[in-house]
Design brief:
Layout lengths: L2 H23 L2 H30 L6
Length: 63
């Protein structure tokens, strides 16, 4: 077995993965990832505003 057999095997596996899994999914995965990212960022900003309000009302914090 030579190194070209290994590289052609990797190529065939990657091509199969793309052709039979990624092409049928299309843009669905990226759309879901984008929506999840926006929701996660919105939740993060909401929590950050809550933490900032708590910090403003706590006189024992080091600022």
């Amino acid at each position: 077995m030579s190194s070209s057999d290994i590289f052609y095997g990797i190529y065939d596996g990657a091509y199969w993965l793309f052709q039979y899994t990624l092409e049928p999914i299309g843009d669905l995965f990226w759309t879901a990832a984008l929506i999840f990212g926006f929701l996660a960022f919105g939740y993060w900003m909401y929590r950050q505003s809550q933490y900032n309000k708590i910090a403003e009302n706590d006189p024992n914090q080091i600022k």
